[in-house]
Design goal:
By secondary structure, this protein is mostly helical. The protein is built from nine helices and no strands.
Length: 257
């Protein structure tokens, strides 16, 4: 998956897309851009699969065929933050209002205007539109100016929000590219699932014992209920381990009926 490394590239693309477009076109183009970007990020993060399976996942009745489902899954997978989920749903909602109104929809409509104003990006989170770059080490260039969209212009606020979210998503994409989910290998032994459960059980048991030891060191009295709970967990761990060892032994000695 090719990823844009120029942080301002999306900004330039969106500025061109927004130029001269009607309100309806601007709303739909902005949301569609983020929808496709989110699709790229999810693919970047998920385990590699065939093009056919990817298509089934993102099209038709696939579980990730809608903008809404992509937003929600991205949040639940830890790909985007709660604020990013909120902004994406806000942008999606504006797109839907324009898409469902047959004629006359504009950013001046009260409901669309209010939705847009709710997307206003804090000034401290904005990137400059232009950043002068010196051509030599000696050259001095002016500090870039950060320009905030006019709060009385709902379309400008919407476009600023789309551009801002695109940058946020590029950051998430970079993270996902370095933390991609790995293919899970098949279990090759009958006891392998049980051994995995046992390892977690052992870790939790050690933590529980450590907490009780710390409490004792602090001079705190351990409740009988806690002592009994620790004993039960220890017995359960030993029983499970014994069963797994016996099952491994039965396979090793081919004790088959």
């Amino acid at each position: 998956m090719k990823m844009k490394m120029n942080m301002l590239e999306d900004q330039k693309i969106l500025e061109e897309e927004f130029k001269g477009d009607s309100d309806r076109a601007a709303a739909i183009v902005g949301a569609s851009y983020l929808d496709e970007l989110l699709r790229e990020i999810i693919l970047e993060y998920l385990v590699e699969d065939t093009s056919k399976n990817n298509k089934e996942l993102f099209s038709g009745n696939g579980p990730l065929s809608t903008f809404s489902s992509r937003i929600n899954l991205s949040y639940r997978f830890g790909i985007i933050s709660e604020n990013e989920r909120m902004m994406l749903h806000g942008i999606r909602g504006i797109r839907n209002e324009f898409a469902h109104k047959l004629a006359g929809a504009s950013f001046s409509d009260e409901s669309i205007k209010q939705r847009s104003l709710n997307l206003s990006v804090p000034r401290e989170m904005l990137m400059p539109n232009d950043i002068p770059i010196p051509r030599t080490h000696e050259e001095t260039v002016p500090l870039p100016t950060i320009v905030k969209a006019d709060e009385s212009d709902p379309r400008a606020i919407y476009q600023e929000a789309v551009t801002h979210v695109a940058l946020l998503l590029r950051g998430r994409q970079a993270h996902c590219s370095q933390n991609k989910l790995r293919k899970v290998e098949s279990y090759t032994r009958a006891t392998a699932p049980g051994r995995e459960i046992l390892r977690v059980h052992e870790t939790l048991l050690e933590r529980y014992e450590s907490l009780i030891d710390k409490a004792k060191q602090l001079g705190k009295e351990i409740d009988q209920e806690d002592k009994e709970a620790l004993h039960r967990q220890d017995v359960l761990y030993r029983v499970n381990k014994y069963c797994l060892d016996q099952a491994d032994r039965a396979h090793s000695e081919k004790n088959y009926a």
